[in-house]
Design goal:
Number of domains: 2
Order of helices and strands: HHHHHHH
Radius of gyration: 21 Å
Oligomer: single chain
Shape: extended
Number of helices: 7
Strand content: under 5%
Largest sheet: none
Helix content: over 70%
């Protein structure tokens, strides 16, 4: 896992070792920033879990937490929040396929139950794909119209 991120680069860094890109004095600061970003992500997920339990909502708590973080990103706090989160988020994106392996194993393990509802699942997958595709096309068209004017 690579902890280096372009946002961490400082133009006046002193004491860089040749070829390593990071001096021994820079390393603890970078790791601390990465851990802080990960902590903020976990705090939002935990906050979402607490909100889900408190309000007894049928939505997963981690999804609520990321929705709360999306709300924060829509406010003027976007730039500092993104700066703190970016290093940890980039590292998590790099290992995302590994995080999805348990999901795939669970699907294969319960294939018999899923086969009973194959038609409903196929309809839901097609409908979900269609909604996602149309939404992405609409947003892309809207953004292209904004950039032209």
């Amino acid at each position: 896992m690579q902890l280096a991120h372009p946002a961490w680069e400082d133009s006046g860094a002193r004491g860089r070792q040749r070829g390593s890109g990071m001096s021994e004095e820079d390393r603890p600061n970078r790791v601390a920033r990465w851990l802080f970003g990960l902590g903020v992500l976990v705090a939002f997920a935990a906050g979402g879990n607490a909100l889900q339990a408190w309000l007894d909502l049928p939505i997963p708590g981690s999804t609520l937490g990321m929705a709360l973080f999306l709300v924060v990103l829509a406010t003027p706090l976007r730039r500092p929040a993104a700066t703190f989160i970016a290093p940890a988020a980039d590292s998590l994106i790099a290992v995302l396929p590994l995080l999805l392996v348990p999901l795939a194993v669970g699907i294969v393990g319960s294939f018999g139950d899923l086969a009973e509802h194959a038609l409903a699942l196929a309809a839901a997958l097609v409908a979900g794909w269609l909604v996602t595709f149309l939404t992405a096309a609409f947003v892309a068209d809207l953004l292209m119209r904004r950039t032209r004017s």
